[in-house]
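Exercise 7b. Backbone tokens:
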């Protein structure tokens, strides 16, 4: 499968008003760590956890009215980021997130197959999903009280989604090699906010963000040898748009000098239209599946940040 490189650079979008808490009071929290206003420096953070793709509706075969949808196992996901805080309290941050998972299923009997107009007596297929994002953002803090603060951010986000299915179908005419792929690549603006409540060395926070993206989706589907009277699918749609809605909650512990923070949390990302399956329900398909326009990634995570 063709791999796409990340865009060579992400330009930083900046627009917001600095709300008026005094310099001595203003604090902000990103990745679980805090900076006091007036203190410049870098913050490095990493998150790791187990994630699961949801709502993929990845049907691999059907036997009459019964469809076979393998379950996805939890797999590792992670995020790495770095931020620089300015003396006024604002900061610039760059982060990268990635996830990969696969599932395999095999069976024997009488089946209809979703890829190509064919049916047969057995199958052995593997499906893999990869998702990744890269973001550059400008972050502005605002303190409501000594304990409650909010961070606003605006920036650019890149998102890439890839799904491949490879394997074999056993048919009365012989074995067929099956291949299907889907690749969505988009970039656009993202706005987000995070509300934090902190007492001493402990804090609780919740955040939400929305990215509005534009790009293209490429899809392909084929059987080898290709059945007589059919042709492989090759489709590129470069006038697509999509969104990513993400929410997360976390509880964190901070050292007394705020140099280190450790947290645990949960996050969910809803990818709309970026993962739309254009190669589903083709003409003469033996298996009719529900149209899929979105995929959700849900994960439990732990993280740590270091300020220097």
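Sequence design result:
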């Amino acid at each position: 499968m063709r791999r796409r490189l990340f865009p060579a650079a992400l330009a930083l979008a900046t627009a917001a008003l600095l709300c008026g808490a005094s310099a001595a009071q203003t604090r902000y929290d990103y990745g679980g760590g805090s900076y006091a206003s007036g203190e410049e420096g870098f913050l490095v953070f990493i998150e790791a956890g187990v994630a699961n793709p949801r709502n993929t509706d990845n049907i691999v075969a059907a036997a009459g009215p019964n469809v076979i949808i393998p379950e996805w196992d939890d797999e590792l996901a992670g995020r790495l980021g770095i931020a620089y805080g300015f003396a006024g309290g604002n900061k610039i941050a760059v982060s990268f997130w990635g996830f990969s998972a696969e599932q395999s299923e095999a069976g024997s009997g009488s089946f209809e197959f979703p890829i190509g107009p064919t049916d047969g007596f057995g199958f052995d297929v593997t499906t893999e999903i990869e998702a990744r994002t890269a973001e550059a953002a400008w972050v502005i803090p605002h303190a409501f009280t000594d304990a409650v603060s909010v961070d606003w951010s605006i920036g650019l986000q890149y998102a890439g989604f890839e799904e491949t299915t490879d394997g074999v179908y056993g048919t009365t005419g012989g074995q067929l090699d099956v291949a299907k792929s889907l690749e969505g690549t988009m970039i656009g603006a993202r706005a987000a906010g995070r509300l934090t409540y902190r007492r001493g060395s402990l804090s609780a926070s919740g955040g939400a963000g929305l990215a509005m993206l534009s790009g293209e989706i490429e899809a392909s589907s084929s059987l080898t040898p290709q059945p007589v009277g059919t042709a492989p699918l090759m489709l590129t749609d470069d006038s697509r748009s999509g969104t990513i809605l993400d929410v997360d909650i976390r509880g964190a512990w901070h050292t007394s000098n705020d140099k280190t923070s450790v947290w645990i949390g949960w996050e969910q990302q809803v990818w709309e239209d970026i993962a739309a399956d254009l190669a589903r329900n083709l003409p003469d398909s033996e298996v009719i599946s529900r149209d899929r326009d979105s995929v959700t990634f849900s994960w439990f995570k732990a993280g740590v940040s270091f300020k220097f």
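Instructor comment: Confidence is low (pLDDT under 50) at residues 1-38. The chain has one domain: 27-307.
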